[in-house]
TrEMBL record:
Keywords: Hydrolase. It comes from Streptomyces dioscori. Coiled coil: none annotated. One of its GO terms (molecular function) is hydrolase activity, acting on carbon-nitrogen (but not peptide) bonds. Residues 87-433 form the Amidohydrolase-related domain. This is Hydrolase.
Amino acid sequence: MTSPEPTPDAKTDPPGSPAARAPGAADLVITGCTALVHDEREQIRFVEDATIVVRGGRIETITSDPADLLSAGPADAVHIDARGQVAMPGLVNCHTHTPMVTLRGIAEDLPLDEWFNDVVWPIESNLQERDIELGARLACAEMIRGGVTCFADHYFSMDTVAAVTAESGLRANLGQAFFSSQGAEGRERSLDFALRHRDTAGGRITTSLAPHAPYTVDDADLAATAGLAREHGLLVHLHAAENRDQTDASLARHGRTPVEILAGAGLLDTDLLIAHGTGIVERDLPVLARATGRIGVASAPRGYLKFAWPTTTPVRALRELGIPVGLATDGAASNNSLDVWESMALTALAQKFTEGDPRRLTSRQALHHATLQSARAVGLGERIGSLAPGRRADIVLVDLSGPHTQPVHDLAATLVHSARSGDVRTTIVDGRILMRDRELLTVDVPAVVREMNERMPALTDRAHGRRIQEYDT
Ligand SMILES: [Zn+2]
């Protein structure tokens, strides 16, 4: 194997930056696949019989012309024969809480206030570091199996999540969540985490400041967060305008919508990732249009349907403002899975349903959300989100030979509406194979599940009557 010497590329990662190094990444050649690429207008295209050459964790060449390959492929690279498979950018889970997989299915068929106050927040007061570690590890396994190569996580004990992320091989943007009820210490810990972990794990880990939401973090804390984000060049990741009730309650109490509160705090002039936004209303649109920061919104439609929220993320209005809408699952306690493939299909369906128009959110648009828009939403639009020379090699190979995906008349439609996360055969991050032919290579799932189940009685005990917060929109 040749040494994985990074190819300098000033457009993405400067040479010598942590992101330009990919220790242990195998040089890789994938042949015979159909590759999902973007043209210069960002339209989705498919390249037949493509060869993808990866060197130093980065895509070096992607071509269907053998003449391009005379000197491109290292002779001793790992070779994947991907005939019959589609190569596409790995999916990005733009908003999740990985350790919450431990609570998958524990608070079912409840409205949000009861979900938080009666079940989730009492149980979260029991969480130990080991629960966080096991949950994050199981979540990483689930995401690798489902073709997710990057996730944006927003939770507590994020040092532990960062260690698990590094070990799993996944890419992530991580933020230590805080409430104003923690005093200034919560915000300071969030900053300390973000500065200590940014660009670690060979550049795979980036970080954000993570206030919980405008209804649990006060205006002064939000404004201080915006100042820290500008000072340190950090993304801010938070929940806001999650649903229409929150917007109505905010208007009744403060005379301002959650988006107007973010604007007042200066957060729209920072790089900002807003989770959900189903409560974004008409009067918010000009406020968002005036934003000078890079704003992204993460949409996790399964939870909105499950909580019976009356609206979903206003994708069309946000797109008209040029705001990327990335795909997400939220935590598994509300979504029940970390299946971003399902989020892609549900986003397309929810938009058709709410717009009352079958032409809205075509399969190609859904794939654009799943790729470039998701990458931009988590602040990685220059590094990932497309298969192109110079991008990090975050690639999934999808097997379309199953009876539920044949025949293929329209490959984009097959991917969005017929294929499933279980059709992902191989998951690659930074040129390193994390799953090959459905076999996970970095996580021991049976060992995690065994220990997690032993710990469950202590974790789920609610007899103490404590909770970490009170939900009151
Ligand atoms: Zn969330």
